[in-house]
Amino acid sequence: MESATSSHARASPLRSTPARIAFYLAIAALLVAAPFLIDAAFGRTWVRIVDIALLFVMLALGLNIVVGYAGLLDLGYIAFFAVGAYCYALLASPQFDLHWSFIALLPLGAVVAAFFGVLLGAPTLRLRGDYLAIVTLGFGEIIRIFLNNLNRPYNITNGPQGITLIDPLHIGSASLAKTHTIAGITIAPVHGYYFAFLACAAISVFISMRLEDSRIGRAWIAIREDELAAAAMGINTRNVKLLAFAMGATFGGVAGGLFASFQGFISPESFTLLDSIMVLCMVVLGGMGNVFGVALGAVLLTALPEALRHAAPLQQAWFGTVYVDPSDLRMLMFGLALVLMMLFRPAGLWPSSIRRRELAAERQPSGAEGADVRR
Amino acid sequence: MSDAEALLVVSGVSKRFGGLAALDAVTLGVRRGEIFGLIGPNGAGKTTLFNVITGVYAPDTGEIRFCSGRVSGLKPHSIAERGIARTFQNIRLFANMTALENVMVGRHLRTTAGVIGAVLRGPRTRAEEAGIERRAHELLAYCGIAAHANELARALSYGDQRRLEIARALATEPQLLALDEPAAGMNATERAALTHLLERVRRDGTTLLLIEHDVKLVMGLCDRVAVLDYGRKIAEGTPPEVQSNPAVIEAYLGGTLA
After folding, report:
1. Does B134 touch chain A (CB under 8 A)?
2. Quick one: closest CA in B to A219, which residue?
3. Which of A3, A214, A251 should one mutate to test binding to chain B, selecting the residue with the greatest count of B CBs within 10 A?
4. pTM across the whole model
5. A308 located within any domain
6. A325-362 CB burial, b ≥16 within 10 A, e <16
7. Where are the domains of chain B?
8. What percent of chain B has pLDDT over 90?
9. I want to staple B208 with a disulfide (CB 3.0 to 4.6 A). Which of A84, B23, B35, B58 is the partner?
10. What is the tens place of the pLDDT at every residue in A233-287?
C-alpha cells in the first residue's frame, strides 16, 4: 500500500512516468492554446461562453461537495454565487465608491459565502432529501428577493437595477477589461479572463480531489451512505455537515466575485432558481461525486444551450423559414437531452464508480496477511 | 460491583414509545474484560437498550455510566469517542465504499486532519493517512477479510459484512464493543469462526456486550448473561445460573414446560 498507488495513479490509466508527464503537458498546452484556437475557429462569442463555462465548473464542483460527497440535496446553491458576486460588486464599484482590490475581495467573498453556508446549514441539519431540498430552495429565493428589495429605505444593492461599472480584475495596473498585445498575440478581455478563470477552476479541481481523498471527504461520504452508522463511528455529523455547506459555499463565493468582475454588471436576475437547478443538473449529469465528471457536465451544459441557438439559421437554410423559435427549441432540446441522459446513463456521463473499479483493480491483494497485528 | 471492575453501569433505565414501555427500570453492570450477553425473546427491548447505551435514544429515566462518567444523554458520536463502539442488527455499512474505506472511516475519531491539512497534504497529514490505511489493513486481516479490502462493502457476503462491521467498530479503539446479533444469518462454520474472533477480541483487551438469539452461542461464549422480557430484566448471572432460572424458562417456553 505505497501511497503512490493509493492517491496518484488512480486518476489516469497511464502508468509509466514519462508517458504521464507527456500526457499532462499536452493537456496543459491544449488548455493554454484553447481560447485562441476557439477564437480563430468559432469567434470571440464562444471564448466568452467558455469563460462562463469555467465559472460553472467552479460552481458545480462546489455543489458537488454538498450534493455529491455529503449527499445533501441543495436547490438554492446559486445564492452563494449571488453572495460572492454582491460582496465583490458592493466593495468594488461606484455604488459606495469603494474600490477594494480583488486580492482581498475574492477571499472575502469566499468567507462571507461560507458564513451564509453555515447559516443555511444550521437550521436544516435534521432534514434530508425532499425536505432539505424545499428549505434550500426557499433560502435561494430569500437571498434573491432580499437583493431585489434592499434599495429601500437605504439603497444598498440598487434593487432590480443592479450594480454597474464593477471594477474588472487587474494584474498590476493592467486591467483585464482592456485588450493588450503581448509579443504579437492579441489578448482580448475574454482571453485574459479565460486564464484567470482557468486558474481558479484548476484550484477548485485540486481542492476537490484532495478533499475527497481525505479524512474529511471520507466522513462526508460516510454520512451520505448512512448517517446513523457514521455517527456511531464517532463522526460529529452536525459539524461535518456544516463543513460541507461552508466548503461548498466558498467555491460559489469566489465564482460569484469573478463573475461580477467579468460582467461589470450584476442584478438579482442572474441568480434565479433556474440557475440553481442548472448547476444541480451539471453535477448529476456529469457524474455525482466524480470531480472530472462534474467539470465535464458544467462545460457541456453551458455549451449545449448556446450551440442550440444555431437552430434558427439551420431551419432557415433547410426549410426557408423559421418554424420553431430558437429560444423555445433550446429549452425543448435541452430537456430532451436531460431525459435521454437519465435513461441511458443514469449515473452520469463520467460516474465515480468507475474510479472505484479502477481502484479495486489497481490495488489488488496488498499484503497485510500477517494476522496477529492488533495491539 | 465496585467501580474499579465496572466498565458500564446501567441503572434504572426506562424508555417508552407512546404507550409501550420498551425498557422498564433496567439495571445491569458490565465488568471490564468480560463478555456480557443480553438475551430475551423478540421484542424484549434488547436493541432498544443498545440504542439507549449508544446514544441513539436518550433514556426517559435512569442513568448510564461508562468508565465512571455519565454517558446517558450524550450524542452517539460523543459516546463513540468515550470508547463504546457498536455494530447493527440490520447491517449498516457504508455500502458504496470499499471494505478498506469503511474501516478507514472508523479511524476518524482517532485522527485529526482537517480541511487545510487535507488540501495542503503536508508531511503530518500524509503520515496520518498512511497510518490510517495501515491500521485499516491490519484490522481487516485481524477479522479475516483482508482479501476483500478493495471490494465494495455491499458486494461482500453476509458473514463478511458482519465481520467488516466488527473491523470498522474496532477501528475506533473501543473499550466496549457492543454487538447486535453478530451471528444472525450465519452458518455453523461462520459461527464457529465468529466465536473464535470474539474470544480473541476479548483476549486482546476489549470488553464485549452481545445481543444474540442463538442461545447455544451465548451460553458458550459469555461470562455473564442478562435476560430481558417485556422491557424488564428478569435474570442476570452466569450461563448455568440463568439457564436454570424459572423466570427465564417461563419467558422462553411460556411456562408450559420446564
Report:
1. yes
2. B105
3. A214
4. 0.88
5. no
6. ebeebbeebbeebeeebeeeeebbbbbbeebbeebbee
7. 6-83+174-253, 95-158
8. 77
9. B35
10. 999 999 999 999 999 999 999 999 999 999 999 999 999 998 999 999 899 888 8
Would you give the DSSP letter of residue A266? B
A181 bridge partner residues: A186
Residues facing B36 on adjacent strands: B209, B224
Torsion B158-B160-B164-B170 (CA) sign: positive
Quick one: which H or E segment has residue B44?
A: none
Residue with cell 442488527: B89
Q: Is A218 on the interface with B (CB under 8 A)?
A: yes
Give the three cell numbers for residue A201: 477552476
pLDDT in tens, A28-52: 999 999 999 999 898 889 999 999 9
Residues A361, A367, A373, CA angle at the centre, nearest 5°? 140
Can you tell me the ipTM of this complex? 0.92
Domain count of the fold of chain A = 1
**Which of B137, B152, B169 has the CB atom closest to A1's CB atom?**
B137
Which CATH number is associated with domain B6-83+174-253? 3.40.50.300
B170–chain A Cβ distance below 8 A for any pair: yes
B54 interaction partners in chain A (CB closer than 8 Å): 232
